[in-house]
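To illustrate the input format used throughout this study, we show a single complete record. The first block contains the structure-token representation of the backbone; no residue identities are included at this stage. The design step must infer an amino acid for every position from geometry alone.
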């Protein structure tokens, strides 16, 4: 890790909505030297030329950051690596994230679903990877362009010390950020919302709010969330709220959003269904909880992905 007086170096792996937003806010605030790395060449070229453009409550603004392809990332170049690729891409970027870490550095995953931490820990070591949950809203408008909505970041850590400078930088960039020892409850609360809203909205092709007003959407969302709550309870995790009520509240609060899974299907890209419903099915099997609704959603989304790949071909990774 660098000395306190040195410039903080942050590598953001991923050129999608949340990665672009965090990189832009950190750079705009001067809170860190920021590099964005990925494989989406069009986005990297746009960011090199124009910076990252953000539309939020304050208006429209841009921030300049460094860019790199994954192969250009060098050893020890970052004090913190923020991994923000979609979960199917985690294995492909894990070695790069580990390589980039300076001594004492930390990888933080703010990705959706389960299993990302384990993949990153296999590459970098378990003590060098932290899991975070974010409720920040972000929609990619194009390469290097993002629309943002308010939200917060919570990073799991029994010892917040190694994350102190990152938390300070995120707060300086205007993002509500904290650490907490047991992140499991927040991870599973987000799973309750993501495993119900995302696949149902994606399969119906509708914005989140329609799931609240549509009888079919509401029924299927509720059934999926109920299973997630049952699995969490069997694992000894207290969501501190009914899983169905939680998911419906999130769907209503984000009524106008086209969820990330729907956006992935729209462009023919692999979704995060394995890390969401697929992971719930696996966890349910481990604790003896039946999850037929999540299993059906898992299969249906994969079938839709296969049909889209057959007609459109692969979409660029972000």
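Output of the design step:
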């Amino acid at each position: 890790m660098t000395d306190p007086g040195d410039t903080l170096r942050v590598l953001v792996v991923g050129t999608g909505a949340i990665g672009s937003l965090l990189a832009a806010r950190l750079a705009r605030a001067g809170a860190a030297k920021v590099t964005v790395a990925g494989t989406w060449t069009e986005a990297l070229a746009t960011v090199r030329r124009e910076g990252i453009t953000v539309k939020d409550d304050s208006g429209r603004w841009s921030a300049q950051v460094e860019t790199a392809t994954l192969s250009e990332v060098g050893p020890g170049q970052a004090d913190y690596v923020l991994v923000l690729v979609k979960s199917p891409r985690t294995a492909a970027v894990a070695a790069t994230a580990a390589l980039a870490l300076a001594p004492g550095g930390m990888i933080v995953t703010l990705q959706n679903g389960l299993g990302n931490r384990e993949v990153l820990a296999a590459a970098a070591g378990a003590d060098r990877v932290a899991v975070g949950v974010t409720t920040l809203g972000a929609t990619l408008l194009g390469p290097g362009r993002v629309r943002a909505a308010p939200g917060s970041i919570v990073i799991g850590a029994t010892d917040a010390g190694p994350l102190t400078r990152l938390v300070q930088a995120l707060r300086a960039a205007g993002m509500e950020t904290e650490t907490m020892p047991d992140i499991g409850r927040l991870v599973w609360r987000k799973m309750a919302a993501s495993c119900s809203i995302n696949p149902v909205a994606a399969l119906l092709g509708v914005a989140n709010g329609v799931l609240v007003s549509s009888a079919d959407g509401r029924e299927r969302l509720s059934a999926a969330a109920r299973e997630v709550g049952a699995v969490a309870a069997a694992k000894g995790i207290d969501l501190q709220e009914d899983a169905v009520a939680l998911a419906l509240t999130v769907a209503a609060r984000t009524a106008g959003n086209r969820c990330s899974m729907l956006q992935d299907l729209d462009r023919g890209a692999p979704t995060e269904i394995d890390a969401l419903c697929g992971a719930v099915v696996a966890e349910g099997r481990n604790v003896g909880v039946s999850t037929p609704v999540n299993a059906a959603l898992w299969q249906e989304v994969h079938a839709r992905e296969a049909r889209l790949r057959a007609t459109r071909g692969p979409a660029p990774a972000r």
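Structural context for interpreting the output: The mean pLDDT is 94. The two ends are 28 Å apart (CA to CA).
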